Amino acid sequence: MLFRSALSAARFNARLVACQSNMRSVFNSLAVYAEGHDGRFPEIPESGPLATAGYVGPLLKSEGLLENEQVFNCAGLVGHKAVNRIPSTKEILAAQTPEELQSCRERMLGDYGYSLGYFENGKHVFPQVLSQSQLVLIADAPHCATAARISRNHGGWGQNCVMVDGSVKFNRTGFFGTDAIYVNDRNIVAPGITPLDSVVAPGYIETG
Fold it and tell me: pTM here?
């Protein structure tokens, strides 16, 4: 029994580390993008087919910043169908039906979520590269049926999070301090209402 428990824990930790490695790869691509855009991470369009949290996947692909599209797969999700190829922005814009568009959106960011940014003085702002921060930029995608929308990517035990400074943390509660990861301070999935209100949404969530 102890051997089985130890083996299970070893597998969990190995998958956790593999997921963190993928997230670091995604962050590195986002950081390269930010270098050419005044230190700002990608901004999600306010309207149209690309106005979803998953926009960053096709954007990085179109910018030639992805070496391997499978970095959007979480190793902690056992037995699910992995995303082998994310859609391009052209594919998304060419979608002819709502069903086609939704299919694209569900693959745009694979198993992860991205920050919806926040509002400041009435303007929608997205995170900048910072040396120290508690703001989450990327995380395992949330699940709508769990307390605090905790991700099921790692068996419901928590979620990997990449902060805007590039550090990776495994979070078990769905909160950093008093700030919820997956909803804003009004308890809805929408951009934050202050610069310290971090909200990460799955790829298919619209921002408009």
Answer: 0.91
